[in-house]
């Protein structure tokens, strides 16, 4: 059965919101939970390899009890967001958040849409994240996420409910809706974003050290608020820019 026939068959059998719920849940399960589990169990199965690739020292890593507590908070957040989505299905909420056109998008359309979504996510997440660091919000809303100064993959969604909605759900949900992407493009973007967020919180130097920036944010708090570095470059809040400014201040 071709992808196009399979898609038509799915659309014929189920309402878009139901398809959306099941595919979103599968992506969360594979790209967030399974990948987080692999990163978290790495030190137990391959301690020497894991220690060689960790960005921060062993003594700063969270204990098994802290990781368990992290799991419970993340699980609660996922249950809440899945329940909200299920509620929308039961209430027969319309319209579906993305285009469910019968004709599937081609690779070029998917790639273009996903790249634009990453760009929009960078802008939304950066400003939401800067807002969460303001004194009137930080202690009650964002401080718990900073509990792990040496983060692990699961800590990506270790957040208060308010932060989970503002910083974890909105920057992923809004871009495909604003750009009116096909549902397939939105799932590619979601899968990429979850793989990226687990990797940048993993504390490992894999994928050319892509975790370094966000790891530095967890360690120093006042640098690297974005996801891909673009907005940090624009606002001079990247790790290097802040370091340069401090050096400059010392010299003067
Ligand atoms: Zn922060
Ligand atoms: Zn984080």
TrEMBL record:
Keyword Transmembrane helix set for record: yes
GO cellular component: membrane
Regions that span the bilayer: 21-42
InterPro entries to which the protein is assigned, alphabetical: Fatty_acid_hydroxylase, Sterol_Desaturase_Related
Keyword field contains Transmembrane helix: yes
Domain of life, source organism: Eukaryota
A single MF term (Gene Ontology): iron ion binding
Record GO biological process: lipid biosynthetic process
Record-annotated Fatty acid hydroxylase domain positions: 115-237
Keywords: Membrane, Transmembrane, Transmembrane helix
Compartment(s) where it occurs, according to its Swiss-Prot or TrEMBL record: Membrane
Name of the protein in its database record: Fatty acid hydroxylase domain-containing protein
